[in-house]
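Let us work through a complete example step by step.
Step 1: write down the sequence.
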Amino acid sequence: MLSVFAFPLLFSSCFAESSGVQPVAQPAAERRVFAAPASLPSGIVDAINSDQAAFLRDLEAVLAADTENLLVLVDKNHALPADFVPDALVPLGAGRSYQVSRGGFSLTASAESALERMAQTAKRDGITLLVSSTYRSFDYQKTVYERIVREIGQAEADRESARPGTSQHQLGTAADFGSITDAFAETQAGKWLASHAHEYGWSLSFPNGYEQTTGYRWESWHYRYIGEQAAAFQRKWFLDIQQYMIEFIDGWKKSGAPSAD
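Step 2: predict the structure and record it as tokens.
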């Protein structure tokens, strides 16, 4: 079922869900229509319908706060250019509250700063966060993907490894933690991150039970930095599923929808 959001420029109308692109009745001169991503569950649409004004205020605040384009859509259907390299990459190293499994890791400055703040709190709680992977160039993604295909075959590789250009790691705002295995979810660090990462703007990218939505099986260790405001927005309106929120925002931006100002 296609979710269609109809609204006038002043946003006094309700969003509407319909089987076709048929908005609810609005003044013709003022009406605009936004078709939400097909993946968006009806429950999310219903929640937005219940308080459209609050949703739009929150959405506009998130978009205004995203000065670093942290919410760009990168998935199996939306690839980054091979030559894309994020600005302001900084190395991860000694003297920080987190640990790294090896040298050579880097994140954008804002993501590293948020990681350090998060790791400081975790450490006060008796937990040391171990970073196991961060920024990956297009060429490095290619090497990793081809190795995994050789090891487990194409079909299984596509469930857990991104093809070159489609990895969030190329953004410089994604990090893997701990063992990079399912066992991580049951560790103290895994449980701590699941409960607290959002407080520092980090979001679990591939939650359990959402492979059809994200394209990847559950990865309890893979988090993406999206900023504290976006993380709160995701939890409030999108069932705390990163893919739903970022697909919505991507569609919203591309639609040329007016701001709520």
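Step 3: interpret the result. Confidence is low (pLDDT under 50) at residues 7-30.
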